[in-house]
Write a structure and sequence with these properties.
The complex is a heterodimer of chains A (396) and B (592). Chain A is mainly beta. Chain A is 4% helix and 46% strand. Chain A has one helix spanning 2-17, and strands at residues 36-44, 55-60, 67-71, 77-83, 86-94, 97-101, 112-114, 123-127, 131-138, 149-156, 163-171, 177-183, 186-193, 221-222, 226-227, 240-242, 247-249, 252-253, 257-258, 260-265, 274-283, 289-291, 295-300, 303-309, 312-324, 327-339, 343-346, 351-352, 358-359, 373-377, 384-388, 394-395. In chain A, strands 2, 3, 5, 6 and 7 form a five-stranded antiparallel beta sheet that branches. In chain A, strands 10, 11, 13, 15 and 16 form a five-stranded antiparallel beta sheet that branches. Chain A is elongated, with a radius of gyration of 28 Å. By secondary structure, chain B is mainly β. Chain B is built from four helices and 47 strands. Mean pLDDT of chain B is 76; it is low at 1-44, 74-96, 198-205, 233-240 and 387-400. Classes of the chains: A mainly beta (396), B mainly beta (592). At the A-B interface, helix 1, strand 3 and strand 12 of A face strand 4, strand 13 and strand 23 of B.
């Protein structure tokens, strides 16, 4: 089965590669159009050594999907013959060098103009080597932590505003080792989320209603989401500055802390609010949000216990139900919690989700582009909502 | 009553690791060693302490921070009395487990336990416990908690790891090559190749990294096969023309087909290095036409090597003309399989094997109804009259058959890799049910017939005949384009065998195999209890050999050649219809 799915994937690639290549000779010959060349040398950006076997691609800006390829020779030289006049983009890649456009600076790259009086030869393509960030995730006893979720965040400032986005989601292997390869230079953060493999969150159900720490305290533990290096506070995360060709190590040690139990019930005796479930979300660096894996058990009707929670600030979503006009209506209430110790939470607290309606109007009277989306961010809780913009622009 | 021991069922769904394990895993009885007497301070209150150590089964070194879980079989487990002194009734329900971590010296201790028989299980990442390796094997490590509780030694078996390096013909590392690992497993006492599921949480193990390296951990001791499945490869040119060369599926140590692959035997904790050098082969084209299906209907066309791997880089089929074309990367033979459905939704099938080293055109595949094997089940009864009083049973031609259901289910287990298991369909109306095996591909199969017994119906399989072959003695061979009726006879004058396993240490539990002389491919298995007693019913009258093993892991017991090694230690017994026979059998220790 595995081989089959791989084959399908390949098929798609194969089809993409099959798109007709515009042969330069297909350009209608006329007195005005002479043919030109694009040529140059691929060198290592850091030591200026020529790079042999690099794959160099050009595409006319008017037909960006029609690619022509060349492979650099032993002296790094590459040549495209019989190129029609026009503007071209130039890109190259090689093992150890990510695919990159010629002369990239920020979001911009340099195009090549081909035609009379234009210089499209002797281009020096300085290919920048990729970098990597890898490391080991261990526990306080220096045992490797397997299957930990490792998140790589990249800081961008392309749009003028500085943002930090989740770039790659990885996982540790049996030795606790993770590896993010093929990285361009930049500023990165690494965070690790894991549960102790031995964790056992004995719910305090069946005993007195008080929320005493259970006797299995050694096992009733959790790992807070931890940033390189050794902090649970997103603000205190250490930026990792990766230059081209850097291979950096960022080891992270997770410390188990007593897991917190929250008892969730409706504390308003006059309300018939039912509790259907609950989720905890945590805001990560750069305002990214992740669900926190917890253990939820029903203790008694409309009382649930959430256990295995590492201390921290959470946005708690409670799914509630209410009898209304003979039927049952469900809603989701949200409250922000700073969870530092075991306790009880009133499920009826928090605000119900409000509905925001409106319409997106495009100035040119056209329908919205297919990929448009609308995002709503809560500056305080970090809550995010995203919907695609519907065909007529009206949203709800 | 023909009773299939519950364990027998379990074994048929659980896959065991074959071989390898047998040489290294200590017998379960060695897991618990008698040790020092531990008295409890609270003896008068009947609270006891259970302690012990967890060790690495290979090195004998203590395993620190291993989780030891205690679960009770007969009695609820109490929390230590210190935990809830104000609530004397506080205890976990019986199915809750209590657990502790071992200290730096691998030691653990449970306090405040009531007297009971319990089971201890240890866990630690990087290790297997005995229960995981002997999945389905019933022998449990009982510990009796009481004034004489011994110190317990629990062995954890370290997992094996395969690492390797994949390079091209120039020695340059290849990234993104999928490494597929298959285990030689045992299902129901029979060897079987099964691709291991890679955990999705470990993407590193799926493909080679940018240095061409891979690492596969979490391997139980056993026999494995590795294959490099090298597409898509990052380093391959992706722009421009269709490739004229590509990397084929390559089995370790660099061969094209599974039949030539080298088995990799891993001992517990072994670190093995397995490197691949991949060589590109020419991409060739196969083209032709498929006929014999309803016009315009889709057909599924597959291009496979002789190991069942898909070798098509790209394929096209035109339902209007029936024309197909594929670009394939195969170093040798390629089997083209075409499947479609006719207007009545019946399966159509055609296949053709060609040498794919050069381009072949004008191939022709004529779809024909897929091979079906009708099954006739005859039921011989000695207990019912011609008009049986049992609901759901009627008579046809003097034999008793069930109305509205079928008396047995029939499964085919392919011997060769790359074929799926098949189960006979029940077709026809409720008054005239028919058993049919549909879409049977040519090949060899083991036939499994399970009588649908109930409390008041107890049948055994007396015979299975197919085209003159006795399928209790030999495998089913299906030849292309030919099929005959499979005839199964069930009978209800079954015999019962009870007995006792005798072992020098007399410590109970053993696996008992009962192998009919007339049907060596179809042994029955049961488990002797703590006293060595066992009973198995629903057996066909006849001559049997009875084996008792301390452990079954890695034993291919459905293979008569494997069991013949132990034949001198088996008990011979003759079972009479409707009678119970008693036997004594010596335990065969299989050692570490």
């Amino acid at each position: 089965m595995l081989s089959r799915s791989i084959c399908l994937l390949f098929l798609t690639l194969g089809l993409a590669a099959q798109q007709p290549v515009a042969p330069a000779s297909a350009a209608p010959p006329s007195a005005a159009s002479r043919s030109f060349q694009i040529s140059g040398t691929v060198v290592h950006a850091l030591n200026s050594e020529p790079i042999a076997g690099a794959e160099v691609v050009i595409a006319s800006t008017s037909t960006p999907n029609q690619l022509q390829t060349a492979v650099s020779e032993a002296n790094g030289h590459f040549l495209f013959k019989d190129v029609a006049p026009g503007k071209y983009t130039l890109a190259a890649k090689h093992r150890g060098f990510p695919q990159q456009a010629f002369d990239v600076h920020g979001p911009f790259s340099t195009g090549i103009a081909v035609g009379p009086e234009k210089t499209s030869e002797n281009i020096l393509f300085r290919l920048k080597p990729e970098g990597s960030i890898s490391g080991r995730v261990t526990d306080e006893q220096d045992d490797p932590i397997r299957n930990a979720a490792v998140m790589l965040f990249a800081r961008h400032s392309d749009t003028g505003e500085r943002t930090t986005d989740l770039s790659i989601h990885g996982a540790t292997d049996d030795q606790g080792y993770y590896h993010f390869g093929h990285l361009p230079a930049g500023t990165y953060f690494v965070a690790v989320s894991a549960r102790p493999w031995y964790a056992y969150h004995d719910p305090s159900g069946g005993r007195a209603a008080k929320l005493a720490t259970t006797d299995n305290s050694e096992l009733d533990v959790a790992y807070p989401i931890t940033y390189y290096r050794q902090t649970v506070e997103p603000e205190a995360a250490t930026p990792i500055t990766l230059s081209w060709g850097d291979h950096l190590t960022a080891d992270i040690s997770l410390r188990a802390v007593p897991a917190i139990h929250l008892r969730l019930s409706n504390q308003n005796p006059n309300s018939s609010l039912g509790i259907e479930g609950a989720t905890l979300k945590q805001t990560l660096i750069g305002g990214n949000v992740t669900f926190v894996e917890t253990q939820i058990e029903n203790i008694s009707p409309n009382v649930i216990e959430i256990s295995g929670i590492p201390p921290g600030r959470y946005d708690m979503g409670v799914e509630t139900s209410k009898e209304k006009n003979g039927g049952i209506s469900t809603n989701s209430r949200h409250q922000t919690l700073n969870v530092q110790s075991n306790g009880a939470v009133d499920a009826a607290a928090g605000s119900e989700l409000a509905t925001v309606t409106g319409a997106v109007i495009f100035d040119d009277q056209h329908n919205p582009p297919q990929e448009a989306s609308l995002q709503l961010h809560n500056r305080e809780s970090g809550q995010q909502f995203e919907i695609p913009v519907p065909p007529k622009g009206e949203f709800d | 009553m023909y009773r299939i021991p519950s364990c027998f069922y379990f074994c048929s769904v659980a896959f065991f690791l074959l071989a390898g394990a047998s040489a290294f895993v200590p017998p379960a009885k060695a897991q618990i060693n008698s040790g020092t007497f531990l008295s409890s301070n609270e003896a008068e209150k009947s609270f006891y302490t259970l302690s012990g150590t967890v060790v690495n089964s290979v090195t004998g070194e203590p395993v620190s921070r291993a989780l030891v879980q205690i679960s009770s079989n007969q009695a609820p487990v109490f929390h230590p009395p210190t935990a809830e002194e104000d609530d004397p009734n506080a205890f976990d329900p019986g199915d809750r487990q209590h657990a502790v971590l071992t200290d730096r010296e691998g030691r653990f201790k449970f306090e405040g336990l009531p007297p009971m028989r319990t089971t201890l299980i240890a866990k630690k990442p990087g290790f297997f416990n005995q229960q995981e390796l002997n999945e389905g094997w019933p022998r449990e490590n009982h510990v009796d908690v009481g004034p004489d509780s011994p110190a317990v030694v629990i062995k954890l078996i370290p997992e094996a790891v395969i690492t390797g390096h994949v390079v091209d013909a120039n020695g340059e590392p290849l990234e993104g090559v999928i490494i597929r690992i298959s285990g030689l497993l045992r299902a129901n006492g029979r060897k079987q190749l099964q691709a291991l599921q890679q955990e999705q949480e470990q993407p590193q193990t799926l493909g080679t990294n940018e240095d061409g390296e891979f690492r596969i951990a979490t391997l139980a001791p056993g026999t494995y096969y590795l294959a490099a499945v090298p597409y898509p490869i990052r380093n391959q040119p992706q722009f421009g023309k269709n490739p004229t060369v590509a990397y084929p599926v390559t089995y370790y140590p660099g061969v094209a087909e599974f039949s030539e692959a080298e088995p990799i035997r891993l001992a517990p904790g072994q670190r093995a290095q397995m490197d691949f050098t991949l060589r590109q082969t020419p991409v060739t084209s196969l083209a032709g036409v498929i006929t014999g299906y309803p016009h315009g209907q889709e057909a599924d066309v597959q291009f496979l090597n002789q190991s069942g791997d898909d070798v098509a880089l790209e394929k096209q089929f035109d339902p209007q003309t029936g024309k197909f074309e594929a670009r394939i990367v195969a170093a040798g033979l390629c089997t083209i399989k075409a499947d479609a459905k006719d207007a009545l939704e019946r399966l159509l099938h055609a296949e053709l094997t060609v040498s794919a080293t050069t381009t072949v055109k004008n191939l022709r595949l004529s779809l024909a109804p897929a091979l079906s094997i009708p099954i006739v089940v005859r039921v011989e009864t000695t207990k019912f009259q011609s008009e049986p009083q049992i609901e759901g049973v009627g008579t046809i031609g003097g034999s008793v058959v069930r109305v509205g259901s079928v008396p047995a289910s029939v499964n085919l287990h392919p011997i060769d890799i790359g074929h799926p298991d098949l189960t006979a369909n029940v077709e026809g109306g409720p008054r005239n049910p028919l058993l049919v095996l549909r879409n049977v591909e040519a090949g060899k199969y083991k036939v499994e017939v399970v009588p649908n017994n109930s409390n008041d119906l107890s049948f055994y399989v007396k015979s299975i005949q197919y085209g003159g072959a006795d399928l209790l003695r030999e495998e089913l061979t299906v030849t292309p384009g030919q099929s005959s009726t499979m005839e199964i006879v069930l009978r209800d004058d079954s015999a019962t065998l009870s007995g006792t396993v005798q072992s020098p240490e007399n410590d109970g539990q053993a696996a008992v195999l009962v192998v009919p002389d007339y049907a060596p491919l179809d042994p029955k298995m049961t488990v002797a209890d703590d006293h060595g007693d066992f009973q198995i019913d629903g057996l066909a009258p006849g001559e049997y050999k009875v084996f008792a093993f301390d452990r079954l892991d890695g034993l291919e017991y459905s293979n008569p050649d494997v069991l013949s090694e132990y034949a001198s230690k088996a008990a011979q017994v003759s079972l009479q219809p409707n009678e119970k026979t008693t036997v004594r059998v010596d335990l065969i220790p299989r050692g570490e």
